[in-house]
């Protein structure tokens, strides 16, 4: 479903609720998978739009498209500064990593300095985090079955005190909402690319969908699976959702009908539980990694296998995968303690980092890795399991160690629009990091 269609149906659903037709609105919401607002939050925008159109047709000089409630364009009643997926895809200033065309100057230093600005605390291990496509929100998921939604701007402007147990109750309230609807730990999170929908995957075998701009703390819809759901990822168009479970077959769901698809050829499937799934930025391909110690690259259009990396991490299982912006490279990490950057077309390693994470503890060597938004840096676990480290993607130089957690780091998420991170740890905490501009300016002055 296109964004224009989603906005139209959302207007209809809101108008139905506003006028008291709750049952009709609920049925349409379930059919289109567009959140249905509660009575007090429904808008009257559709009526206003129709009224303005009638006025325009009657000779009113005001422009229909220029007023509030425009269906095809950006509505003045919605977030005026919201960033759509196309804004991120079309940002010509962000080229990403490209070893074929990047000019690497020997001895040239790249400055980076991340600083903790906010700490959120769960009642059990913080397992995963995800930023929204526009970078305005970040969600964290925990073993305590809860999901926290946080406002990035409020965290950025927050002055973290020494008391790290009461920060969620500060007057600025960076924690917008906490969702409770799962019965077992949260494994993965993802934001819809255009609608105000947050999706979660859990060991309880469900994928749940929340309207994060509503005051409702429960999911408005869910998918029930027979296995623990380990990883999810929305297609950039928003109509499809990848899901990886303890079963070796990858699922692809139509989010409007919940119809399920999988690869036709049995021999192309993984042979073990899926650890992670991630689409490329334009959605044309996706990557998967499994406990069967392989990584696979798939064609999203026909769900066919493109290539398989049969032994990418020395026989150990890969735990995370991410495709670069230009789709030339694949970032992976595994239980062999290595983070590797692969050229997809040839299958060769172009960059490799030995994190030094101990293999003796099963928690410590489940490492994570991610690009920052420009792909200039790779952030991953440090040999001290409670810390993370920032590497220069092109040179492999270690730039900074991110310390602060007192238990192993379980997950790392990076903002798609700025140098901001969220690190998740078994110490129950999620740490929000942003650039320390004062330190960076000082470093530049000393060069």
Blueprint of the fold:
Layout lengths: L2 H16 L3 H11 L12 H13 L27 H5 L24 E8 L4 E6 L5 E6 L3 E6 H5 L18 E6 L5 E6 L5 E6 L3 E6 L9 E4 L4 E6 L5 E6 L5 E4 L5 E2 L12 E6 L5 E6 L4 E5 L4 E6 L8 E6 L5 E6 L3 E6 L5 E6 L14 E3 L5 E5 L6 E5 L5 E5 L6 E6 L5 E6 L3 E7 L1 H10 L1
Antiparallel strand pairs: 1-28, 2-3, 3-4, 4-5, 6-7, 7-8, 8-9, 10-11, 11-12, 12-13, 14-15, 15-16, 16-17, 18-19, 19-20, 20-21, 22-23, 23-24, 24-25, 26-27, 27-28
Helix pairs in contact: 1-2
Verbal overview:
This protein has 447 residues and is mainly beta. The chain folds into two domains: 3-78, Mitochondrial Import Receptor Subunit Tom20, Chain A, CATH 1.20.960; 114-446, YVTN repeat-like/Quinoprotein amine dehydrogenase (Methylamine Dehydrogenase, Chain H). 13% of the residues lie in helices and 35% in strands. It has six helices and 28 strands. The strands form seven sheets. A four-stranded antiparallel beta sheet has the order 1-28-27-26, with no helix packed on it. A four-stranded antiparallel beta sheet has the order 2-3-4-5. A four-stranded antiparallel beta sheet has the order 6-7-8-9, with no helix packed on it. The longest helix is centred in the first third of the chain and has 16 residues, at 3-18. The N and C termini lie far apart (52 Å). Residues 58-84 and 162-166 have low confidence and may be disordered.
């Amino acid at each position: 479903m296109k964004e224009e269609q989603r906005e139209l149906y959302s207007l209809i659903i809101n108008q139905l609720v506003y006028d008291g037709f709750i049952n009709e609105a609920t049925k349409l919401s379930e059919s289109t998978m567009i959140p249905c607002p509660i009575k007090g939050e429904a808008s009257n925008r559709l009526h206003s739009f129709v009224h303005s159109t009638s006025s325009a047709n009657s000779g009113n000089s005001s422009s229909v498209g220029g007023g509030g409630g425009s269906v095809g364009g950006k509505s003045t009643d919605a977030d005026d500064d919201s960033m759509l997926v196309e804004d991120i895809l079309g940002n010509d200033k962000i080229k990403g990593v490209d070893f074929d065309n990047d000019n690497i100057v020997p001895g040239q230093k790249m400055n980076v300095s991340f600083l903790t600005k906010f700490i959120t605390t769960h009642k059990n291990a913080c397992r995963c985090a995800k930023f929204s496509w526009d970078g305005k929100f970040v969600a964290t998921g925990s073993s305590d079955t809860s999901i926290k939604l946080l406002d990035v701007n409020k965290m950025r402007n927050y002055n973290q005190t020494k008391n790290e147990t009461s920060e969620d109750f500060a007057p600025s309230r960076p924690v917008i909402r906490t969702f409770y609807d799962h019965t077992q730990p949260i494994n993965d999170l993802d934001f819809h690319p255009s609608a105000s929908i947050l999706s979660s995957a859990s060991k309880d075998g469900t994928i749940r969908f929340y309207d994060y701009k509503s005051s409702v703390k429960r999911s408005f819809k869910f998918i029930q699976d027979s296995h623990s759901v380990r990883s999810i990822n929305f297609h950039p168009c928003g109509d499809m959702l990848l899901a990886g479970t303890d079963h070796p077959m990858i699922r692809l769901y139509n989010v409007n009908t919940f119809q399920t698809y999988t690869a036709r050829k049995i021999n192309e499937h993984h042979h073990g539980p899926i650890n992670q799934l991630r689409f490329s930025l334009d959605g044309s391909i996706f990557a998967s990694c499994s406990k069967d110690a392989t990584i696979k690259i798939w064609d999203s259009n026909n769900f066919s296998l493109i290539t398989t990396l049969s032994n990418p991490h020395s026989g150990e299982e890969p735990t995370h995968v991410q495709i670069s912006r230009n789709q030339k490279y694949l970032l992976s990490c595994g239980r062999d303690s290595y983070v590797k950057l692969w050229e997809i077309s040839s299958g060769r390693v172009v960059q490799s980092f030995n994190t030094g994470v101990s293999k003796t503890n099963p928690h410590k060597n489940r490492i994570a890795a991610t690009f920052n938004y420009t792909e200039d840096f790779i952030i991953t676990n440090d040999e001290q399991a409670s810390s993370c480290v920032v590497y220069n993607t092109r040179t492999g130089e270690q730039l900074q160690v991110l310390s602060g957690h007192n238990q192993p780091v379980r997950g790392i998420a990076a903002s798609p629009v700025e140098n901001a991170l969220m690190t998740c740890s078994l110490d129950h905490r999620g740490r929000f990091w942003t650039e320390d501009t004062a330190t960076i300016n000082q470093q530049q002055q000393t060069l």
